[in-house]
Write a structure and sequence with these properties.
Layout lengths: L11 H5 L5 H8 L4 H15 L8 H11 L2 H9 L7 H14 L10 H5 L1 H12 L9 H19 L4 H18 L9 H9 L3 H13 L4 H5 L22 H11 E2 L1 H11 L7 H5 L2 E4 L2 E4 L2 H19 L5 H21 L8 E4 L13 E5 L2 E8 L5 H5 L3 H13 L7 H13 L17 E8 L9 H13 L7 E2 L3 E4 H7 L8 H11 L24 H18 L9 H4 L5
Parallel strand pairs: 1-2, 6-7, 7-8, 7-9
Antiparallel strand pairs: 2-3, 4-5, 5-6
Helix pairs in contact: 2-8, 3-6, 4-5, 6-8, 6-15, 9-20, 9-22, 10-17, 10-18, 10-25, 11-17, 12-17, 12-25, 21-22
């Protein structure tokens, strides 16, 4: 197993020798109010968080000693396996909303709060149950994806800056570039109508809230629970922000326990579906606002804009809006790759066309040595039911519809198959305008997704299964490699290396190190990526600097103040 994979977390039966049942879990859960558990889960999540990728083992050790008796705490830590994790905490928070009273007659005491440690172990066990194996190969691969997808999305590497930078670039720079085209939608106007907030003010306030938690080390050392929250008073020095905008922002971003409870009970989401919490990533705890998960707060900058505008668009033309969003994503990816390559080791050609009929080959081509990488971008967002509903057949159907397609409506995989057959089949006669493919020895098809499912375990195996079915029986002049899936988040992390590292060597090393295509790009054994030093992206760093400037101007901060919690001068109480 690659060294980057987090160890399997500890579950209740590892400690007690007997499995946790849902009935026992709910019985213990009801000892708490939903308000108390939301507060506990929010604080614990903050303590586990760190802004760089990785796992905060020091804070985790402190939590284990806090929530378990000394002998048990030492035994748990000796396993070197996580006891607390983000997926578990979100699950407990949502189940508390489903089953608990909003408030209880008497508040939870410290000894009672410590009892929640056992509750967390029970939650981990309930999350660890696997769906039943499927008979068809496609559904079985979908089952494998769904069995670990929720855990990877919550416990996987963090990408706060990448999410925020991507949103700014897509929703402003590239959405604006499509002004005047037939599919264009005015994102700023529609977002304002949906939320009563200007887009720039929304960005400024999300970034401002996020900056509240930049000094995590100091926050984690505090025993004052107010230090784990943000409130309107935090923005008191921001001369340019109007009180009505601040009120609209927190109304849009937060919910109290009573309203959360009503929504969870009305919609009854699957245990792995946290859409309700994602939609309102701040818990309104009596006028102060606690992030339920910092990643959700950062993600709201992108997902919040998309879904708010999507709801505002007339249902009759929502498909057109999704086409527009896909075009925005393609522009973003072309900029990301084109601005990252050196033009020698890697040469990028956006939207290449066939020489004869002028039709588009694919969304992008990278020439890398004697290899050619054909890239299809998919901006589609999968439904919560498909990703988290626990039914492999639903996920299988949705993946086929959005990433494979049919003979009549080709999607990513079929589009790549079509391009490879036309360019490299034994009887192929098509050529690409402006690109010499005469010396190509290897073809590498890549499906690049905006949805984080591109980083899911087994997604490459799933898509390659359908790819191999479609090319079976065909012969090609160069070698055709298996198809790889990559999420845009993983590609953003990869982009800074394309100035001096061959993309084909990275992808071929991925295929050689993970022949079953189980692992995401950065978690599999890769002889090239295993030896590179971490690099920030100059492109995304510049976008974050733009975001900081938007924040400074729209909040009315002095020119010489950087956007940090210290600059906004938040009190500790």
């Amino acid at each position: 197993m690659p060294p980057n994979i987090l160890p399997v977390y500890i579950i209740y039966s590892n400690v007690t020798g007997k499995p946790a049942t849902e009935a026992d879990f709910i019985h213990r859960l009801k000892d708490f109010s939903s308000s108390a558990l939301l507060r506990i889960c929010s604080v614990l999540n903050m303590v586990l968080t760190q802004l760089a990728d990785g796992y905060d083992e020091e804070s985790h050790t402190r939590l284990v000693h806090t929530f378990f008796p000394p002998t048990l705490a030492n035994a748990l830590l000796a396993t070197h396996r996580p006891v607390f994790h983000r997926h578990q905490l979100l699950f407990v928070a949502q189940e508390a909303l489903r089953h608990c009273e909003v408030t209880l007659p008497s508040p939870v005491s410290l000894p009672e709060a410590k009892e929640s440690g056992i509750l967390m172990l029970m939650a981990s066990e309930l999350l660890a149950s696997l769906p039943v194996k499927r008979n068809s190969a496609s559904e079985e691969l979908a089952r494998r994806i769904s069995s670990i997808l929720p855990d990877m999305e919550t416990n996987g590497p963090s990408s706060y800056n990448r999410k925020m930078a991507r949103s700014l670039a897509m929703c402003t720079r590239f959405a604006d570039q499509l002004h005047g085209t037939k599919n264009h939608f005015d994102i700023r106007k529609l977002f304002r109508e949906a939320t009563q907030l200007d887009l720039d003010i929304f960005y400024a306030l999300v970034f401002g809230c996020f900056s509240r938690f930049l000094n995590l080390k100091e926050i984690k050392s505090s025993s004052n629970l107010a230090d784990y929250a943000v409130g309107p008073h935090y923005f008191r020095k921001c001369a340019a922000i109007a009180s009505e905008d601040l009120n609209s922002f927190f109304a849009y971003m937060s919910s109290d326990a009573a309203n959360f409870t009503a929504e969870v009970r009305a919609k009854n989401p699957h245990r792995n579906e946290f859409t309700i919490l994602r939609n309102r990533p701040l818990f309104d705890d009596g006028g102060i606002y606690r992030p339920l998960d910092l990643s959700m707060l950062a993600d709201k900058m992108e997902s919040g804009v998309f879904w708010s505008v999507n709801a505002q668009v007339d249902a009759k033309i929502r498909d057109q809006f999704h086409v527009f969003w896909g075009e925005v994503f393609e522009l973003y990816v072309s900029w990301l790759i084109g601005s990252s390559v050196d033009g020698e080791i890697n040469k990028f050609f956006p939207n290449p066309h066939y020489l004869k009929k002028g039709l588009e080959v694919c969304d992008g081509i990278v020439l890398s040595g004697t290899s050619v990488i054909l890239i299809e971008c998919k901006g589609s967002t999968l439904t919560a039911k498909g990703k988290y509903g626990g039914d492999a057949s639903v996920l299988d159907a949705e993946l086929q519809k959005k990433f494979v397609g049919t003979t009549a409506t080709r999607k990513g995989v079929r589009q790549l198959v079509d391009a490879i057959q036309k360019l490299f089949g034994r009887e192929a006669h098509d050529q690409v305008s402006g690109i010499d493919l005469g010396k190509i020895e290897n073809v590498i098809p890549v499906l690049l997704t905006r949805d984080d499912i591109g980083s899911a375990f087994n997604l490459s195996a799933y898509l390659n299964f359908h790819f191999q079915e479609l090319i079976r029986g065909n012969s090609f002049t160069p070698t055709v490699s298996p198809l790889c899936a990559v999420s845009v988040d993983d590609f953003e992390r990869l982009a800074p290396y394309l100035v001096d590292v061959s993309l084909s060597e990275i992808l071929l090393a991925r295929l050689n190190g993970d022949k079953d295509l189980i692992f995401p790009l950065w978690l599999g054994d890769n002889a090239v990526l295993n030896n590179v030093e971490p690099r920030p992206s100059p492109l995304l760093t510049a976008e974050i600097e733009k975001l900081g400037e938007i924040c400074r101007v729209r909040l009315g901060l002095p020119d010489d103040e950087s956007l940090t919690a210290r600059a906004l001068d938040t009190p500790s109480s």
